């Protein structure tokens, strides 16, 4: 796989210049995607222009530890902003009238994080960097107006496996690259279990348009049902 790293770095620099921004903020989840994005942005802009933000929100300590590991590895400043009480207050306010589903509550978390990232980015004249990869985008495996909300995304053309390979080249800590992909929505949650299909099958679909019959049916159905996530809102004309 040819990653065109220098072209990717120049593209990041161009986004900053076009946005007349001073730097970037990255939500540090402790996962492979945000770690790889951090490594790219540090190479492109220098560590002093990259701000990592860890936002525990009913999260797991291992993810927070890995966010700190990434910050230390690449020499960036890391803010730790705990959103637990914010989540609780919002849930209580809504559930006084509407009993929320488990998935709805889980999706509040990335939307609170998006709000936090943009508040800090606007204050510092920074841009928000996205971390969704091609496999996740194909499956709509991101929260609309949550982790799907950003100013630019340097991983959007790379599958999950390709992100892992690029992460190795960029010296992302191996503990992060080896752990099972998870959005951390609830205990024991993993991407593949929730989607009902493996990342390997998704990659086969992206690159060849096919995979095993059972996985193909799941991928096509989910891709169709999540098309609205990959488009701007429909506007009446």
Question: What is the secondary structure topology, with strand pairs?
Answer:
Elements: H1 5-18, E1 23-27, H2 32-45, E2 50-54, H3 61-74, E3 77-80, H4 84-95, H5 102-124, E4 126-128, H6 134-138, H7 160-169, H8 174-178, H9 191-195, H10 199-208, H11 213-225
Parallel strand pairs: 1-2, 1-4, 2-3
Supply Rg: 18 Å
- Name of the CATH class: Alpha Beta
Helix/strand-derived category reads alpha/beta
Q: What is the percentage of strand-forming residues?
A: 5-15%
**CATH fold annotation:** Rossmann fold
Number of helices: 11
Question: How would you sum up this structure, described in words?
Answer:
- The structure is a single chain.
- The chain is globular.
- It has a 4-stranded parallel β-sheet, with helices on both faces.
- The chain has helices at about 5-20, 30-45, 60-75, 85-95, 100-125, 135-140, 160-170, 175-180, 190-195, 200-210, 215-225; strands at about 25, 50-55, 75-80, 125-130.
- Helix 2 (about 30-45) packs across helix 7 (about 160-170).
- The chain is built from 11 helices and 4 strands, in the order αβαβαβααβαααααα.
- It has a single domain (about 5-190), classed as HUPs (Rossmann fold), CATH 3.40.50.
């Amino acid at each position: 796989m040819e990653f065109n790293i220098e072209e990717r770095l120049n593209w990041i620099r161009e986004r900053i210049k076009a946005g007349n921004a001073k730097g970037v903020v990255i939500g540090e989840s402790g996962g492979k995607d945000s770690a790889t994005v951090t490594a790219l942005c540090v190479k492109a802009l220098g560590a002093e222009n990259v701000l990592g933000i860890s936002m525990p929100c009913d999260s797991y300590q291992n993810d927070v530890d890995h966010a700190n590991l990434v910050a230390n590895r690449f020499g960036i400043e890391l803010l730790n902003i705990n959103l637990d009480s914010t989540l609780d207050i919002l849930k209580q306010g809504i559930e006084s009238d509407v009993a929320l589903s488990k998935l709805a509550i889980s999706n509040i978390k990335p939307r609170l994080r998006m709000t936090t990232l943009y508040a800090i980015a606007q204050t510092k004249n920074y841009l928000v960097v996205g971390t969704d990869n091609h496999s996740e985008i194909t499956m709509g495996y991101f929260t609309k107006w949550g982790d799907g909300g950003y100013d630019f995304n340097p991983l959007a053309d790379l599958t999950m496996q390709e992100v892992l390979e690029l992460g190795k080249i960029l010296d992302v800590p191996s503990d992060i690259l080896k752990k099972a992909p998870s959005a951390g929505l609830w205990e024991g949650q993993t991407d593949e279990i929730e989607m009902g299909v493996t990342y390997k099958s998704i990659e086969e679909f992206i690159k060849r348009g096919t995979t095993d019959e059972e996985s193909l049916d799941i991928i096509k159905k989910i891709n169709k049902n999540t098309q609205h996530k990959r488009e701007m809102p429909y506007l009446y004309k």
